[in-house]
Amino acid sequence: MKHFFNRRDSIVTEALDGLLRTTPPGRLARLDTYPDIKVVLRADWDKSRVAVISGGGAGHEPSHAGFVGRGLLTAAVSGEIFASPSVEAVLTAIRAVTGAPGCLLIVKNYTGDRLNFGLAAERARTEGYKVEMAIVADDIALPDIPQPRGVAGTLFVHKIAGHLAETGADLATVATAARAAAADIASLGVSLSSCSIPGQPFEGRLGAEEGELGLGIHGEPGVERIPLLPASDIVALMHERLGARLDPAAAYALLINNLGSVPPLEMSLIAEALLASDLGRGVKLVIGPAPLMTALNMNGFSLSYLKLDPAREAALTAAAEPLAWRPAVPPGTVAIEAAPTAPRATDVAASADAATEAVIRRVCTTLVGLEEELNRLDARAGDGDTGSTVATGARFALNALPHLPLADAAATLKAIGAGLGTAMGGSSGVLLSIFFTAAGQARGEGKNLASALLAGLDRVVFYGGAVPGDRTMIDALDPALKALAAGDLAAAAAAAAAGAEATRTMARARAGRAAYVAARELEGSPDPGAVAVARVFEALAAGA
């Protein structure tokens, strides 16, 4: 596993400073105690209300510093990666933000965090500070363990306590609400990989077809290994564990947490599978899916449920300043609106025009006759199918002749354009469809045929990106149509031939599949599309 970092011993301090630099001015600050003590705090804090402090090891970003701000945490204390901050670091944070109303410490239930935050609280009390603690133990992976882990459900407690403190509630009220919320949270995680710590060798413990259920946020193994399953089956498996802890008559808030490296596409799929399943029943508010409390780059997610009451619902839906917080929203239904129908094509009756039919037949028979030659030329630069693709389009046009409105040039061009995109397929079919469609539109607007064809060429150049000199059919078509606009078909044929021949000496293609081919493979071979254009104009000039 690879990581972006400078030195292992400065990863956390540099990351915290990066957070400060990318947060709107005036919101966050840090104490001048780097590197041993890493505390991020509200820059606007005046100690007039209860302070809410949390923290723990780094590696869980955006937790915890990402949630410092109005309506959430007052300060966050960070240790090194997956290591609890020291007693002195926590005590320094308490001193920095605690005024007469006191402070609440929100602690995840890990031994290091409990001891270090606990001793800091005791020392702070001897200094005269009012300090309370709420311990979060929301992980249900090991139901019989006496001290369950604190995981992503801790964020519910941050939000509820932060909201109450912001509205001026006293310390007893804030602490009581936080502890009660912590007791009503159930969380469970699943992952398809372990995480990788920067600067340490990666040890993958899972097979290619394995995942883990019931894991924490420090890369520790899950409670059990599971086979790689469809997302809906994984959600069903999680329901077996979580369902027993949820009250079917209660309303819940659900936090969908990305543990680090699940792509957004997959997280949205997981949210759909989850909310459409039994685990979605009773969910009144959803937070996420988003990376909220990660385990570095773990390829997994966790679910946290909090039983709601009116006060908790108000706290979770209240606005909060930190950019990392995701608003709690009611889970919606999939709204479906009728797609607009395509305008009905105006039926244009088939009509006869001997001259137009003769031109189409001459062009199409020429292209059908070139199938093998063009395939052979294309084999040097592409997949050897230019001749077959062009011949397919030509056969379509020949078969469509009895149904075309040949007496109406604009309608005929549009009809050919509409059919080629489907009949030919691939980029060539789309480009020729654009050419004829745009030419038909221009002809219908009153331009003569030559000018209309130039208008079609203009759209091909715009959408396709190729210009003369790029070794494509444009090298023959551009000069030919310009000569045709001057009224000289013989000159157009000569210009097309010269343009096609010029592609023989172009050592580098700048568009189309040939752009990926080395110059030595193209040397001495003309572009097959340009050759097709030249032969068509040659046939037209000969029959004029």
Instruction: State the helix count.
Output: 18
Mean pLDDT across every amino acid position: 93
Give the proportion of residues in helices: 40-55%
Uncertain parts: 513-520
| Main beta-sheet annotation | 6 strands, mixed
Structural class: alpha/beta
* Radius of gyration computed on alpha carbons: 35 Å
* Total number of beta strands: 12
Beta content: 5-15%
Widest sheet, order of strands: 1-2-4-3-5-6
Label the overall shape.
Answer: elongated
Distance between the termini: 69 Å
Summarize the helix and strand pattern as letters. Answer: HEEEEHEHEHHEEEHEHEEHHHHHHHHHHH
What would your notes on this structure say?
There is one protein chain. The protein is α/β, with parallel strands linked by helices and 544 residues long. 42% of the residues lie in helices and 13% in strands. It has helices at 11-21, 87-97, 111-126, 154-166, 171-183, 231-242, 264-275, 310-317, 354-369, 371-378, 386-400, 409-423, 426-444, 449-464, 474-485, 489-502, 519-522, 528-543; strands spanning 28-30, 38-42, 51-58, 75-81, 103-108, 131-136, 185-191, 210-213, 224-227, 252-258, 283-290, 300-307. The protein has a 6-stranded mixed β-sheet with strand order 1-2-4-3-5-6, with helices on both faces. A 6-stranded mixed β-sheet has the order 9-8-7-12-10-11. Helix 3 links the parallel strand 5 and strand 6 (131-136). Helix 10 runs antiparallel to helix 18 (528-543) and helix 15 (474-485) packs antiparallel against helix 16 (489-502). Residues 513-520 have low confidence and may be disordered. This is Dihydroxyacetone kinase subunit DhaK. Residues 354-542 form the DhaL domain. Pfam families: Dak1 (PF02733), Dak2 (PF02734). Keywords: ATP-binding, Kinase, Nucleotide-binding, Transferase.
